[in-house]
């Protein structure tokens, strides 16, 4: 009885002590602008000892007392965020990039100090290690946005694995090292001197996505980043495919130029036939993935992995995928594997890690070798390169890449370039590789863009239906005194190249559309663009063209080859001098004109004439009828943002 009474008293006493209750909070941390996961973010519960970090996928779990009211998220280069806890045990956070913070912080060991507290030069900071530690450069590179880290000389040993004893490292703000090819824009050409205009088609769309990245980050793009043809061809247009057995159909429209009503604007539209996915030929694909140290950032390798998985989801049993990676050297990460073994392929993608230098040339050579070994005679043989283009080991210049790609082009293996990242982005190199390698080029800045390029436009991105597509226009001098091709500066061909089947040109994929715009100065219109030259001294100047009874303004010819043929086929169409009112043109015509006008303003074109941001915006707003994907509406918002940025830039320069 006494024992029972004692137990009751003990239990009664314990009721006065209440154990602290805890709850497990889970969630994910992403970057606000891109939606990409942020690894290494510090997650703490203010007023408690609870703390954790996000994993490689940006996810976290933290055990906090029931009394905890909030969680705090901190990450170098991003604004600190505090979120209140509610009843739910799930909490997601989106951190906003803060470039100013990068100028205020230097790193000492694993701690931070304010710049004002550091009296010595901040480019080198001492670190003392009591025990072996991970390589600082590898640990910090990419984890600290906007900062590059490099190891100083260390004692003998493998610095790539450990740093022993006393060592040091240098840290400096990331310098904008992006590169763009300088292509002077096309000027007006007189018909008397050059009645023929010849160019290769271009289905690339990288420039538009890259421009969007700049504007969404609050700055206007560098003029050399603006390629008007890639901006125009980013969008879908309602063109009918070929009605006969040919792979390409041509469409034209003629009206006045919005920025100069006395000039004509000609739109040429090509539409490739669409092949149903189940009828597409089998694919021999090689994923060539850059896993160098520059790819550590959240909008690079993590986005590459997600993008590649989207593509893997589209593959069939008859397709094959191999994975080649390159950093300091190149290696085979996955041998050719059937497309229905998605778990095997995705596991290989998940295992990719970044670090080291960038031997892009070696990676390309190995990728072509693997593609040739698994070549499908009647299939689609293609390398898909995912990189920021920052090659720094072995052949690395734009010229080196052009030579390598041109040599490999005869292997019948095409290449698709997917560009990622910012800061050290090498657009010039990737554009060169796509142009010379029978390929196409897209810039991937988020998962939505990855879905567009690799899912929505899967057939167009990977499956060629017409190759070496060229256009040549002969202008009637009785109707036209001068003309200008908008964009396509790096696709201009000599007139003799049009009939030369050995001359390489752009390819069109399943369902692809290509739009080209010509600004035309009619005979009799006085302006400064037609130009004039002094009479020739050693030969007679050609007489002025005689008026003829033809109402044709020009004849458009285009050549193409079937995918497995080396002989081109020719088609032609004559265009009469019967322009329609701009308001009567198709939505596609007006929208393409608006994009071109916007591009001229961004490029600071000397031929923009009466172009304005507001005119381009108004024109685009009235041409959004078929906008199922919302890309045209997005363009309007982008143009409005650019208008504001241009206004601020103008005010700042006064």
**Major β-sheet annotation:** 6 strands, mixed
Distance between the termini: 97 Å
Task: State the total count of DSSP E strands.
Answer: 30
Give the overall shape.
globular
Cα Rg = 30 Å
Order of strands across the widest beta sheet? 21-20-19-22-23-24
How much of the sequence lies in strands comes to: 25-35%
Low-confidence stretches: 14-18, 101-175
What value does the average pLDDT take?
82
Helix content: 10-25%
Question: Helices and strands: which structural class?
Answer: alpha+beta
Number of helices: 15
Describe the protein.
With 654 residues, the chain is of the alpha+beta class. Helices cover 24% and strands 29% of the residues. The chain is built from 15 helices and 30 strands. The strands form 8 sheets. The protein has a 6-stranded mixed β-sheet, with helices on both faces. Strands 15-26-28-18-17 form a 5-stranded antiparallel β-sheet. Strands 16, 25, 27, 29 and 30 form a 5-stranded antiparallel β-sheet that branches. A hairpin with a 7-residue loop joins strand 29 and strand 30. Helix 13 runs antiparallel to helix 14. About 12% of the residues have low confidence.
List keywords for this structure.
654 residues; alpha+beta; 30 strands
Topology, pairings included?
Layout: H1 2-14, E1 22-31, E2 42-44, E3 51-53, E4 59-65, E5 70-74, E6 81-84, E7 93-95, H2 99-102, E8 105-108, E9 111-114, E10 124-128, E11 133-134, H3 136-140, E12 147-151, E13 162-163, E14 166-173, E15 189-190, E16 196-200, H4 206-216, H5 228-232, E17 248-257, E18 260-272, E19 283-290, H6 301-312, E20 320-326, E21 330-338, H7 342-350, H8 360-373, E22 380-387, H9 398-408, E23 414-419, H10 427-436, E24 440-443, H11 447-456, H12 458-462, E25 464-475, E26 480-485, E27 506-509, E28 513-522, E29 552-561, E30 569-576, H13 587-603, H14 613-621, H15 631-652
Parallel strand pairs: 1-7, 19-20, 19-22, 22-23, 23-24
Antiparallel strand pairs: 1-4, 2-3, 2-5, 5-6, 8-9, 10-14, 11-13, 12-14, 15-26, 16-25, 17-18, 18-28, 20-21, 25-27, 25-29, 26-28, 29-30
């Amino acid at each position: 009885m006494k024992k029972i009474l004692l137990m009751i008293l003990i239990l009664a006493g314990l009721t006065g002590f209440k154990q602290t209750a805890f709850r497990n909070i889970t969630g994910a941390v992403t970057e606000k602008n891109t939606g990409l996961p942020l690894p290494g973010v510090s997650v703490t519960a203010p007023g408690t000892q609870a703390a954790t970090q996000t994993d490689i996928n940006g996810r976290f779990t933290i055990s906090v007392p029931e009394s905890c009211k909030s969680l705090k998220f901190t990450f170098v280069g991003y604004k600190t965020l505090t979120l209140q806890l509610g009843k739910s045990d799930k909490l997601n956070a989106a951190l906003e990039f803060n470039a100013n913070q990068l100028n205020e912080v230097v790193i000492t060991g694993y701690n931070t100090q304010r710049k004002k507290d550091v009296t010595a030069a901040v480019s080198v900071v001492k670190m003392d290690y009591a025990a072996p530690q991970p390589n600082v450069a590898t640990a910090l590179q990419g984890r600290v946005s906007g900062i590059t880290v490099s190891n100083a000389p260390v004692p003998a040993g493998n610095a790539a694995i450990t740093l022993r004893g006393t060592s040091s490292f240098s840290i400096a703000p990331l310098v904008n090292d992006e590169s763009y090819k300088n292509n002077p824009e096309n000027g007006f050409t007189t018909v008397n001197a050059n009645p023929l205009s010849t160019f290769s088609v271009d289905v690339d769309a990288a420039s538009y996505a890259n421009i969007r990245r700049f504007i969404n980050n609050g700055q206007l793009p560098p003029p050399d980043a603006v390629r008007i043809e890639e901006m125009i061809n980013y969008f879908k247009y309602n063109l009918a495919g070929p009605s006969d057995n040919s792979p390409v159909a041509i469409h034209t429209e003629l009206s006045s130029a919005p920025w100069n009503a006395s000039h004509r604007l000609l739109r040429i539209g090509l539409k490739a036939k669409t092949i149903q996915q189940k009828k597409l030929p089998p694919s021999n694909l090689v994923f060539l993935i850059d896993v160098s140290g520059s790819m550590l950032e959240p909008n690079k390798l993590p986005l590459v992995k997600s993008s590649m998985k989207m593509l893997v989801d589209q593959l069939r049993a008859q397709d094959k995928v191999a994975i080649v990676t390159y950093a300091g050297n190149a290696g085979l990460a996955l041998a050719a594997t059937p497309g229905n073994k998605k778990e095997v392929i995705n596991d290989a993608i998940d295992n990719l890690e970044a670090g080291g230098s960038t031997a892009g040339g070696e990676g390309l050579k190995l990728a072509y070798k693997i593609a040739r070994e698994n070549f499908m005679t009647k299939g689609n043989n293609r390398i898909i390169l995912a990189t920021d283009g920052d090659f720094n080991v072995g052949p690395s210049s734009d010229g080196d890449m052009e030579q390598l790609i041109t040599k490999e082009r005869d292997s019948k293996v095409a290449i698709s370039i997917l560009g990622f990242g910012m800061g050290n982005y090498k657009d010039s190199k990737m554009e060169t590789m796509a142009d010379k390698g029978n390929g196409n080029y897209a810039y991937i800045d988020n998962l939505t863009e990855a879905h567009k390029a690799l899912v929505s436009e899967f057939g167009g991105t990977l499956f060629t239906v017409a190759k070496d597509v060229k256009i040549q226009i002969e202008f009637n001098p009785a109707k036209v005194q001068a003309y200008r091709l908008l964009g396509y500066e790096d696709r201009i061909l000599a007139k003799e190249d049009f009939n030369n089947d050995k001359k390489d040109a752009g390819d069109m994929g399943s369902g692809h559309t290509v739009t080209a715009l010509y600004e035309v100065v009619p005979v009799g219109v006085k302006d400064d663009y037609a130009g004039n030259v002094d009479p020739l001294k050693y030969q007679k100047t050609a007489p002025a063209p005689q008026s003829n009874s033809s109402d044709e303004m020009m004849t458009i010819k285009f050549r193409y080859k079937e995918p497995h043929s080396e002989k081109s086929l020719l088609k032609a169409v004559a265009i009469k001098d019967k322009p329609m009112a701009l308001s009567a043109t198709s939505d596609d015509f007006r929208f393409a004109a608006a994009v071109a006008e916007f591009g001229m303003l961004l490029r600071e074109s000397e031929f923009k004439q009466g172009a304005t941001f507001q005119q381009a915006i108004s024109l685009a707003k009235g041409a959004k009828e078929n906008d199922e994907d919302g890309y045209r509406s997005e363009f309007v918002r982008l143009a409005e943002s650019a208008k504001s940025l241009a206004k601020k830039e103008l005010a700042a320069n006064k």
